[in-house]
């Protein structure tokens, strides 16, 4: 069972500690995505798993075996890099077979493995080409094929799609997901793109400044974030955060927002939030938690600052107090900046965060 386990893993560069005691268990055949902003430590963690970076403290094990002192070649791990790292003078076939040749694998078995991987990745007709004759997406497939033929226990992907254009990234996300379904192997995938994380992962690990903020399924980190950081990082457009105050009593608890907006707290949440009464909090609302309303039923009616039509839906930007807010609605025309936008708010989907710690209440 080729799982990966990190226990108290620390990485320092000189006196600068960039990974702070990370604990993480990745199950056999699981697809886990490490996501976070630049500098959060995600690529460093991946490189430590691969053996390309020494760990300062802690323990890394794969398949139940501690690999701290093992060289990268002895860890039975294959890595796909951002820059493809193909040999320009070798054909696609030789790029995929070269590692096996160095391991003295019989030629017949090499051909069998290369052709099997090429069929999975739909690059059979490219085997005699050189890398310079390939598109970016084809080169990435070759890099993936080179990893597949090794039949490793663990695949490591380090932002493999960041050099591709938007359309090709979408296509390659699908290819990588198909790959995991076809070649049942543990995958640890690093990206700063939360869309990639949401669409690919079985579990997402959200990192911030070398610390794990939250681990969970895409649904958990999107719908049940445990901090403002996670709520703001996962989702596009980002979650709206509006400073407010909890007021009233247990039977009539409400949120007092700027611009004299008062939102009743849903009945099923009043008991839980009553302990925070008369405290400043932060209201978190996803853009899709707003909906168009008739004038007489609207909860708010702000003036539109910016309109972004996206075809499938429309984004409206406006302000509550001094805070910019965005609402996502079905396609809508006939409105212009400066017009009033009557909106209802689905408070059943709201989140409340502590104004000081930024943790969910």
Provide an overview of this structure.
With 361 residues, this protein is an alpha+beta fold. The protein contains nine helices and 20 strands. Strands 6-7-8-3-9-10 form a six-stranded mixed β-sheet, sandwiched between helices. A five-stranded antiparallel β-sheet has the order 13-12-11-14-20. A four-stranded antiparallel β-sheet has the order 2-1-4-5, covered by helices on one side. Helix 2 (92-102) crosses helix 3. The longest helix is centred in the middle third of the chain and has 17 residues, at 166-182. 34% of the residues are buried.
List strands and helices in order, with pairings.
Layout: E1 4-13, E2 16-26, E3 31-35, H1 42-50, E4 57-62, E5 65-66, E6 77-80, H2 92-102, H3 107-121, H4 136-148, E7 154-158, H5 166-182, E8 186-191, H6 194-200, E9 203-208, E10 211-216, H7 218-223, H8 228-233, E11 240-247, E12 254-257, E13 261-264, H9 267-273, E14 280-285, E15 290-292, E16 306-309, E17 314-320, E18 323-329, E19 343-345, E20 351-354
Parallel strand pairs: 3-8, 3-9, 6-7, 7-8
Antiparallel strand pairs: 1-2, 1-4, 4-5, 9-10, 11-12, 11-14, 12-13, 14-20, 15-19, 16-17, 17-18
């Amino acid at each position: 069972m080729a799982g990966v386990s990190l226990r108290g893993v620390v990485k320092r560069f000189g006196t600068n500690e960039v990974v702070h005691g990370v604990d993480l268990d990745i199950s056999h055949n699981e697809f886990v995505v490490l996501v976070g902003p630049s500098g959060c430590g995600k690529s460093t963690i991946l490189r430590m798993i691969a053996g390309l970076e020494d760990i300062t403290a802690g323990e890394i094990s794969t398949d139940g075996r501690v690999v701290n002192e093992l060289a990268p070649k002895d860890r039975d791990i294959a890595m796909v890099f951002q820059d493809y790292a193909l040999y320009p003078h070798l054909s696609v076939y030789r790029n995929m077979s070269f590692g096996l040749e160095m391991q003295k694998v019989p030629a017949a078995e090499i051909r069998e493995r290369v052709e099997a991987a090429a069929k999975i990745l739909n690059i059979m007709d490219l085997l005699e080409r050189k890398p310079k004759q390939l598109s970016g997406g084809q080169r990435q497939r070759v890099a993936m094929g080179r990893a597949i033929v090794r039949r490793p226990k663990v695949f490591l992907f380090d932002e493999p799609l960041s050099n591709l254009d938007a359309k090709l990234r979408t296509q390659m996300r699908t290819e990588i997901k198909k790959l995991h379904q076809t070649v049942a192997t543990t995958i640890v995938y690093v990206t700063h793109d939360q869309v990639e994380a949401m669409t690919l992962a079985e579990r997402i690990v959200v990192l911030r400044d070398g610390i794990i903020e939250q681990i969970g399924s895409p649904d958990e980190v999107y719908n049940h974030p445990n901090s403002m950081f996670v709520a703001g990082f996962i989702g596009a457009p980002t979650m709206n955060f509006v400073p407010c105050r909890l007021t009233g009593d247990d039977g009539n608890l409400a949120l007092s927002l700027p611009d004299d907006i008062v939102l009743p707290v849903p009945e099923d949440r009043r008991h839980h939030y009553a302990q925070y009464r008369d405290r400043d909090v932060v209201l978190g609302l996803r853009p899709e938690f707003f909906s168009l309303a008739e004038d007489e039923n609207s909860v708010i009616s702000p003036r539109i600052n910016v309109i972004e039509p996206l075809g499938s839906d429309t984004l409206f930007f406006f302000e509550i107090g001094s805070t910019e807010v965005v609402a996502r609605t079905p396609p809508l025309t006939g409105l212009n900046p400066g017009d009033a936008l009557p909106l209802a708010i689905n408070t059943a989907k709201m989140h409340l965060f502590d104004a000081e710690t930024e943790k969910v209440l």
